[in-house]
Amino acid sequence: xxxxxxxxxxxxxxxxxxxxxxxxxxxxxxxxxxxxxxxxxxxxxxxxxxxxxxxxxxxxxxxxxxxxxxxxxxxxxxxxxxxxxxxxxxxxxxxxxxxxxxxxxxxxxxxxxxxxxxxxxxxxxxxxxxxxxxxxxxxxxxxxxxxxxxxxxxxx
Length: 156
Ligand SMILES: [Zn+2]
Description:
The protein has five helices and nine strands; from the N terminus they run E-H-E-H-E-H-E-H-E-H-E-E-E-E. It is an alpha/beta fold. The chain folds into two domains: 2-115, Rossmann fold; 116-156, no CATH class. A five-stranded parallel beta sheet has the order 2-1-3-4-5, sandwiched between helices. Strands 6-7 form a two-stranded antiparallel ribbon. The longest helix is centred in the last third of the chain and has 14 residues, at 101-114. It is globular. The model has no long low-confidence stretch (mean pLDDT 84). Bound molecules: zinc ion. Residues 121, 123-124, 126, 146, 148-149, 151 line the site of zinc ion.
């Protein structure tokens, strides 16, 4: 599902994603409020979320998704590389820079869509929902940083 206030951007992305095997764009929203309502109704596997939008922005949408425990993975598109840590802290499954979106978004989406949810921390047993930067792992292992004990571990 796509949430972005730029219609041309949404159209381009939808076309691109539509060509990916196994990907179906089931909904599009032009602002966060419409987007949240659609997420509740459509229960998408993955939401691609823009940050700067009218009515309800991306950060507010991300907070709401996590506070309301909506079962969807969130890939945030941002033009600010310094936002990544903050966005991950808020529960983003991945952060992609808008400028590199075309070639970088597709593998990230695939990875996020197939990521297992709630992998328990191997140290303290707390469930994880977040993988740390994909650059730290390969296709064979996924890295997590526990929000409770702050330790990192890999799962194969
Ligand atoms: Zn832990």
